[in-house]
Amino acid sequence: MEYRSLGRSGFKVPVLTLGTGTFGGVGGFSSWGTTGPEEATRLVDICLEAGLNMFDSADIYSRGSSEEVLGAAIKGRRDKVLISTKVTFPTGPGPNDCGSSRHYLLRAVEASLQRLGTDYIDLLQLHGYDAQTTHEEVLSTLDGMIKAGKLRYIGVSNFSGWHLMKALATSDRCGYERYVAHQAYYSLIGRDYEWELMPLGLAEGVGAVVWSPLGWGRLTGKIRRGSPLPETSRRRDPKQNDMGPPVDDEHLFKVVDVLDAVAAETGKSVPQIALAWLLSRPTIASVIIGARTEQQLRENLGAIGWTLTKDQIAKLDAASAVTPAYPTWHQRQFERNPPPV
């Protein structure tokens, strides 16, 4: 397993992280997976054998059950694992049951610690941007929890570039701990991350932790032009499908065609190619993989230990390229504003 520094910190993380959204299976998350403590323990065993020691969760996954199952799976070996989890989204009906206020963050972190069965979290990320709470309030609260030993590092998820930059500037001005990670959507069929967030990450030392690297289940190798959706695809669930990033079918099939060609050249699977492409990109610290079964986990672990050639990367780049949103497309016409990749 390769380990990379998380942003500009000295914290080393594995290039693959196991996402635990499939743990628990409560409520609307049952379509993601229903992994219980015994199955989760086996998946953690396989991960640790491969050198993958970081596990990502969130307080909203299965209404907290995901964290509980993860806590049971790592019991007795906390010192061997890194825990990443997220807070911010609603966990109750009250006006203070969500967000990034001091009131909510203190409660949410304590609840996550209890469910996980630990007294500290290695990486806490804000799951989304809270426009109603000042950066000063958020960062002073997180800074205090770091000083208290409850958090080791902090990051964000799903922030806009200006959200993140304003937060980093606040940290620098006030002397608070900085965000070192941005858990962001990025895939061969969703390259928006490259337009603004990747250059920001390069300039400010913020590492990317990639979620949904297979494009919301579209790059599993099971979805192809003219073929029916697999029985287990989340795209069969209209609610789950609508939650994911939109992708034009023809664009998807164009990318899959090249993935198939590169897979034939390398002897690797389509998901392994898609994951390996991500690991070749700037700022990427870790890519979150999901698995309902041991077989899926072992296949995803096969994305490391080898690299794509420059020619193969170029083919994938060309197939997946789209015109960036303004002002990026305009800026790239000026030779002093080259793309980061």
Q: What is the H-and-E element order? A: EEEHEHEHEHEHEHEHHHEHHH
Total domain units: 1
CATH class: Alpha Beta
Strand content: 5-15%
Biggest beta sheet summary: 8 strands, parallel, barrel
- Binned, the helix content reads 25-40%
The largest beta-sheet arranges its strands as 3-4-5-6-7-8-9-10
Helix and strand content put the structural class at alpha/beta
Report the average pLDDT across residues.
94
Number of strand segments = 10
> Might you state the CATH topology name?
TIM Barrel
The backbone outline, from C-alpha atoms, is globular
Unreliable spans = none
Gyration radius, rounded: 20 Å
Report the CATH architecture. Alpha-Beta Barrel
Distance between the termini: 24 Å
Describe the structure.
There is one protein chain. This protein has 341 residues and is α/β, with parallel strands linked by helices. It has a single domain, classed as Alpha-Beta Barrel (TIM Barrel). Helices cover 38% and strands 14% of the residues. The chain is built from twelve helices and ten strands. It has helices spanning 37-50, 65-73, 102-116, 135-147, 161-174, 197-204, 238-243, 249-266, 270-279, 294-301, 310-320, 328-331; strands at 3-5, 12-14, 16-19, 54-56, 82-87, 121-126, 151-157, 181-185, 207-211, 284-289. The strands form two sheets. An eight-stranded parallel beta barrel has the order 3-4-5-6-7-8-9-10, surrounded by five helices. It has a two-stranded antiparallel sheet with strand order 1-2. α4 (135-147) links the parallel β6 and β7 (151-157). α8 (249-266) packs across α9 (270-279). The longest helix is centred in the last third of the chain and has 18 residues, at 249-266. It is globular and about 50 Å long. It starts with a strand and ends in a 10-residue tail after the last helix. The mean pLDDT is 94.
